[in-house]
Amino acid sequence: GHLRIEVIVDENNVIQAAFLTSTLWRGLETIVKNRDPRDAGFIVQRICGVCTYSHYKAGITAVENALGIKPPLNAILTRTLMNISLFLHDHAVHFYTLHGLDWCDITSALKL
């Protein structure tokens, strides 16, 4: 990903401090500024080609929190089902397509 995590441990391997930094800023906060709040989820979901729903959910949750909207139970259940489904999909895509190649010798397939 686009994060850097630094952990300081003592001689007993106990974490004394941890820092998370990111050098990536995509400016979506600026893009959605002064736009119809109903568009926020659709705009921010395009931040990532793999985990689109996570960003969509973050966008609509931010709008709901800002406006004090409590979604109905059916919406919560539907969102939960979508999140679980895409969690499975996204992790499979990430591991086998984006990350898995780091763990195998793909050039060995050329020897077949």
Automatic annotation (TrEMBL):
Q: Which Pfam families match?
A: NiFeSe_Hases (PF00374)
Residues annotated as transmembrane: none
Entry's InterPro entries? Ni-dep_hyd_lsu, Ni-dep_hyd_lsu_Ni_BS, NiFe-Hase_large, NiFe/NiFeSe_hydrgnase_LSU
Q: Where does Mg(2+) bind?
A: E29
Task: Report the domain of life of the source organism.
Answer: Bacteria
Which keywords, in A-to-Z order, does the entry hold? Iron, Magnesium, Metal-binding, Nickel, Oxidoreductase
Name the cofactor(s) required for activity, per the record: Fe cation; Ni(2+)
Tagged with keyword Oxidoreductase: yes
Give its localization: Cell envelope
For the ligand (Ni(2+)), the binding residues are C48, C51
State the family named in the UniProt similarity comment for this chain.
Belongs to the [NiFe]/[NiFeSe] hydrogenase large subunit family.
The name on file for this protein is Hydrogenase large subunit
Species name: Helicobacter hepaticus
